[in-house]
Amino acid sequence: MEIKTTTEGDKLTIVVSGRVDTVTAPELEAGLKFGDAKHVVIDLADVPYMSSAGLRLLLTAHKTMMGVGGELQISNVQPPVKEVFDITGFSDIFNLT
Amino acid sequence: MTDRGSLNLKLILSVLVAFALSMAFSWFLHDRLSERDAHGLIDRAFENVESEIIDCVNERLVRHCMEVRERLDEGYPDDTASLQALAREMNITEVSVADSKGNIVRSSVPEYLAGPGKPAFSFVTAGGMAEDMMCLVNGQETEYCQPFRCNTANGAWRKFVGVWKPSGGFVEIGCDGESLRALSRATIVDLFRNWRVGGKGGIVVTTPSGLVLSDYAEPNREGSQWIEPDGSFYWKRKDVESFPTYVMIPRGAAAVQRDVLVGATATLNGLALVFVALLVGVVISSFVRQQMRAQAAKDLELAKDIQLSALPNVFPPFPDEPAFSIWASMETAKEVGGDFYDFYFTGVDRVLFLVADVSGKGVPAAMFMMRAKTLIKSAAQTGKPLARVFEEANDALCEGNSSNTFVTAWAGEVNLKTGHVVYVNAGHNAPVVRRGGKCEYLKGRPSLVLGVMPGMKYGVGELHLERGDEIYLYTDGITEQPDPSGELYGDARLLKLLSGCPEKDGALLKAVLDDVRRHAGDAEQADDCTQLVMRYRGAPDVFTREYAPTIEGIASASADLAAALEHVPEADKARLMVAADEIFANIMRYSEAKRWSLTVERTHCPEGVWLVIADDGKPFDPLALRDPDTTLCAKDREVGGLGILIVKKTMSPVTYKRRNGQNILTMGKDYGNKDNN
Question: Which of A23, A88, A49, A85 is nearest to B565 (CA)?
Answer without folding.
Answer: A49
